[in-house]
Write a structure and sequence with these properties.
The protein contains three helices and five strands. The chain has helices at about 15-40, 40-45, 45-105; strands spanning about 1-5, 105-110, 120-125, 130-140, 140-145. Helix 1 packs antiparallel against helix 3. The longest helix is centred in the middle third of the chain and has 58 residues, at about 45-105.
Length: about 160
């Protein structure tokens, strides 16, 4: 009996809270700068309005740069975790394909077990060299059912 592989969950790839906050600050500052620029006739002669516009523009630029840097700092860690998860998934698929092949006396490509669900089609190579599409059962354990009789059947007592 070949157990159904339990794959690790997908990674949470949402941006870090720091990136979100900096982007919100940048967007709000840019919006305020646009409002100040559109109403420039009212405050054109005032010095405080110019300072406010400069501060808004500075906050928008610094917020955007900060979000970019924060994203670049967190990205390598996410990529390492993603690669580790992919390696674990490949190892699970390879073990399941080898165990299923040994149980039934056939050869399976681990890539065929990328998505395991009941009655999914898989390509199987028989010992005589011919390929065939079989149905992969994934209820309680992995099972194969092919149009051609399989070399071994683990469901029988003799195998």
């Amino acid at each position: 009996m070949v157990p159904v592989p339990v794959y690790p969950p997908d990674l949470d790839v949402t941006p870090a809270p720091t990136v979100k906050v900096l982007l919100i600050v940048s967007i709000c500052a840019a919006a305020l700068f646009v409002v100040l620029a559109l109403t420039a006739r009212r405050w054109l002669g005032r010095r405080s309005a110019g300072v406010a516009a400069g501060v808004c523009l500075g906050l928008a630029v610094l917020g955007g740069l900060g979000a970019f840097v924060a994203d670049r700092v967190t990205k390598p860690g996410i990529e390492r975790a993603s690669e580790a998860r992919d390696d674990e998934r490949l190892a699970l698929r390879t073990r399941a394909a080898d165990a299923l092949g040994a149980a039934y006396g056939v050869t399976l490509d681990p890539a065929e077990l990328m998505y395991v669900y009941d009655d999914s089609p898989v390509r199987v190579t028989f010992p005589d060299g011919h390929d065939e599409t079989c149905a992969l059962g994934a209820d309680d354990a992995l099972t194969l059912s092919c149009p051609t009789p399989l070399p071994r059947d683990p469901a029988t007592a003799d195998g």
